[in-house]
Amino acid sequence: MSIEPVAGIEPPYYAVVFTSVQRATLDGYEETAARMPALVREVPGFLGYESARTPGGLGITVGYFRDEEAIAAWQRNGEHQAAQRRGRAEWYENYSVHVAKVERSYSFERG
Amino acid sequence: MSIEPVAGIEPPYYAVVFTSVQRATLDGYEETAARMPALVREVPGFLGYESARTPGGLGITVGYFRDEEAIAAWQRNGEHQAAQRRGRAEWYENYSVHVAKVERSYSFERG
């Protein structure tokens, strides 16, 4: 899990917002989730990600990509596809995905 | 805090991704944060929001808006501006904001 907000990327780039509610039983989830950062970092055009989850509540992961081709490459990854199938079959009560083109960004860092 | 992912909005619309790391001392934060949902719901073109925070870690809030004018109206809100100033002065170690135009979205709901 990244602890720092992703900042300083020059627009345009893409944000993929994945919001989910998990089920109570999560057999195998942690191992699979732990694999994803290493996998996505291999994708050309992957720029970073951020993740947060309120205990017992909503989880939000935002992946940043240079362009649509980078998003498509991540979607084609076989291990990612298997994780998605298992997520629908076992782990998620519901989820939403929003694919968006970032037009501007700014950040604050305590001096 | 919304517990359900926001889904079913017809693109195009905008997502404002606000990612933050809080400081240890948060005097007055909860009261101010609790005010924001009621305020933003008054903004014409506000479509919904999602929020998650890993305890001791990253917080991510995503606000969805119909268009740039709706985002601008929210930025002009005086109480929101005061909250932002206080956030920079007192509550946040760092944060990033990404303003993005959603091109497509999809969702999953357990049957």
UniProtKB/TrEMBL annotation, chains A, B:
<keyword id="KW-0560">Oxidoreductase</keyword>
<dbReference type="InterPro" id="IPR052936">
    <property type="entry name" value="Jasmonate_Hydroxylase-like"/>
</dbReference>
<dbReference type="Pfam" id="PF03992">
    <property type="entry name" value="ABM"/>
</dbReference>
<dbReference type="InterPro" id="IPR007138">
    <property type="entry name" value="ABM_dom"/>
</dbReference>
<dbReference type="GO" id="GO:0004497">
    <property type="term" value="F:monooxygenase activity"/>
</dbReference>
<protein>
    <submittedName>
        <fullName>Antibiotic biosynthesis monooxygenase</fullName>
        <ecNumber>1.14.-.-</ecNumber>
    </submittedName>
</protein>
<feature type="domain" description="ABM">
    <location>
        <begin position="13"/>
        <end position="99"/>
    </location>
</feature>
<dbReference type="InterPro" id="IPR011008">
    <property type="entry name" value="Dimeric_a/b-barrel"/>
</dbReference>
<keyword id="KW-0503">Monooxygenase</keyword>
